[in-house]
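Notes taken during the Thursday session

The instructor put the following on the board and asked us to keep it in front of us for the whole hour. The protein is Carbohydrate sulfotransferase. We were told not to look anything up and to reason only from what is written here. First, the residues (419 in total):
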Amino acid sequence: MTKARLLRLSVVLVSIFMILLIIVYWDNVGTAHFYLHTSFSRPHSPGAIPGITAGEDWEALPDVDEFLAKLLSSSLKQNSSIPRKTEQLLVQGSSKPVVSNLEENVRGYDWSAHNDRNSLDQEKLQIERQRTLREFCANSSFTFPTKERSFDDIPNYELNHLIVDDRHGIIYCYVPKVACTNWKRVMIVLSESLLNQGIPYQNPLDIPREHVHNTSTHLTFNKFWRRYGKFSRHLMKIKLKKYTKFLFVRDPFVRLISAFRSKFELENEEFYRRFAIPMLKLYSNHTNLPTSVSEAFGAGLKVSFSDFIQYLLDPRTEKMAPFNEHWRQVYRLCHPCQIDYDFIGKLETLDEDAAYLLQLLKVDRLLRFPPSYRNRTASSWEDNWFAKIPLAWRQQLYKLYEADFVLFDYPKPENLLKD
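Then, after some discussion, the predicted structure tokens were revealed:
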């Protein structure tokens, strides 16, 4: 009887070990390699980024997490001698690449020099941004939906904005309308997740826009379940603990204006069918609408900014489906009270923040962050855009996005919320 039990136990242990080896092998041959923070792959030294606590180690992890981390780390030591092409590649050629995308041609790039903008003390700025975020996350008197839930309570499908680069130990939560196209390009270059004629892209702006937003291009947390099964949450926690996590945010009302301009003032077939047609029917009393966006624009049928605001405030909208990512609140996209971000960038200080972040990640010699658009939607536009929006609607809209204003220290737009 004892021998039989020992045999069964041995079979179980061998099976578990083989499953873990398969997981490691699968990840090694996948598009993103599982390089934990060994001396070979760590992008910064302890304490290099404000908010990272020096002296963190594996002992603080639960038993299963510790076992997985040590197993995976030991199995990957053999990879430390493999040359990493990304780190051998320097940005070459013209600093002003040819831009073929129509939208980017229309907007244009701002190539003016920003190297002399050293007025911001970036380290102190990061400490202040993180302090504000953590204080309000811990403040029991400040509440908003999903604030109190734990990381384990977040469904996998809500983790689809967390992009992982295992080569350099980076996690980026992308927020649409906050330079996410170019940050995704940077992540593609760093992770070498996309090839051009068999060679990884070196220049972010060489990557076509349609590939940038293809979900298959990026390794995101919501894909972990398919790859790692029941170990996925444990591995997420390991990476969240050891990797550098960042996001970029923007004034919430300005982001809404930018989303409206991009999705409803330009001809966009998908957004016309999914959103514009229902808005025009519900809030502008149009019937028998054209089936294509080009026909609708030709007939002068466009969603107004007022229609868009009504749609956001309509209780039926969220009952039908969650907000589209382009106007979904940042706290719902990136879970800042459940994930301890090491770096918080803002679009308003994009050039300075991006340059500082790339230096901290020790990848600034590999690439430069693409330049800003010349005619980017600005906060000075708010008064004009909201001039015809009723005061009550503006106040409701603020309540809808209040958590983003408060958590990321954007001033309350008092001029829009009073008579």
